Amino acid sequence: MARRVTRARKGGVQTATLIPGDGIGPEVIDSAVQVIEAAGGRIAWDVQLAGKAAFERLGTAIPDALLASFRRTRVGLKGPLETQVGRAGYRSVSVALRKMFDLYANVRPVRTLPGVRGAFAGVDLIVVRENTEDLYSGIEHQIAPGVVESVKVITARASRRIAEYAFQLARRERRRKVVAIHKANIMKLSDGLFLACARQVALRYPRVKYEELIVDNACMQLVRRPAEFDVLVLENLYGDIVSDLCAGLVGGLGLVPGANVGKRHALFEAVHGTAPDIAGKNLANPLAAIMSGAKLLRHVGQKQAAGRIERAVERLLRQGRVRTRDLGGRATTRAVTEGLIALLH
């Protein structure tokens, strides 16, 4: 991906950090950039390496130049980044960035899209996940041979503000209900604190219905009656798992955008992985990255360009002629990109 020159915000142009990512990341992010530009998005991209690509080239997965860029721009679009599983190595870059910039709310809208075959119709929900603590605090150690302890951290401050975010979002989006998802029947102190904070916040929003569900029951209800859900608020680990489950209700991770939002910064990303088996083969579904780019445009006030992209995605899917393999088609990444650009208006 060619580096685009950074410009200060001037004449309606928004500077944003662009992280191509690993695996299929550069392909889907390049598609997103092309569609954003074709839709009239006024973004000047500052391209920065992170993850495996940065580690191999620079010896660090989170270069100082990336951090400096994001501090300056306060908004970014990120491709998937490789995280090593079950072995020594660098920790998750995505988790690190969320903590460094206090991107405390992970927001994933999940809805049925036209022309996409799925087990359910009428799914339209938003997963709001606390993004900075819980088991993702990364506090773990071996206390004896063959025995490892991980520490789950839940604080009143983080629990209150994620509940506040969920209720504010519900009110702003005219949503009818917020459901707090927990396991307080077993983790009475940690999840109990999370619930107590959610209940306190709910009292300030009497026009938004408030409910609670134990996480295992919530998963069952989601795969039986997903249309009954609206806004879900969860701790970090539950939110990570449940948001992927919800993506499966509407056609998979290739269709779900995501955002990591804090008070000063916001980082937008597709929620899928790096898919190294198809990297560089022009086979990846770019729609999640493209729709994440549309969310970035809305965040910076470029709503008309965002709307053009969202309408084009729906038209492309409704037509059903251009689909990648994960959606039952044979189209390439490039074909989807070109098809979307042709539908922009």
Main attributes of the structure:
alpha/beta; 10-stranded mixed β-sheet; 2 domains; about 350 residues; Isopropylmalate Dehydrogenase; two-stranded antiparallel sheet; about 40% helix; 11 helices; single chain
Structure characterization notes:
The chain is α/β, with parallel strands linked by helices. The chain folds into 2 domains: 1-103 and 256-345, Isopropylmalate Dehydrogenase, CATH 3.40.718; 119-249, Isopropylmalate Dehydrogenase (3-Layer(aba) Sandwich). The protein is 39% helix and 19% strand. It has 11 helices and 12 strands. It has helices at 25-38, 51-58, 64-73, 93-100, 156-172, 190-202, 215-222, 236-249, 287-299, 303-319, 333-343, and strands at 14-19, 43-47, 75-78, 105-111, 124-130, 140-144, 147-150, 177-182, 209-214, 231-234, 257-261, 266-270. Strand 8, helix 6 (190-202) and strand 9 (209-214) form a beta-alpha-beta unit. Helix 5 (156-172) runs parallel beside helix 6. Residues 1-10 have low confidence and may be disordered.
Q: Helix and strand string, N-terminal first?
A: EHEHHEHEEEEHEHEHEHEEHHH
CATH superfamily of the largest domain: Isopropylmalate Dehydrogenase
The end-to-end span amounts to 26 Å
Strand content: 15-25%
Q: State the CATH architecture of the largest domain.
A: 3-Layer(aba) Sandwich
**The CATH topology of the largest domain:** Isopropylmalate Dehydrogenase
Quick structural gist:
With 345 residues, this protein is an alpha/beta fold. The chain has helices at residues 25-38, 51-58, 64-73, 93-100, 156-172, 190-202, 215-222, 236-249, 287-299, 303-319, 333-343, and strands at residues 14-19, 43-47, 75-78, 105-111, 124-130, 140-144, 147-150, 177-182, 209-214, 231-234, 257-261, 266-270. Helix 9 (287-299) runs antiparallel to helix 10 (303-319).
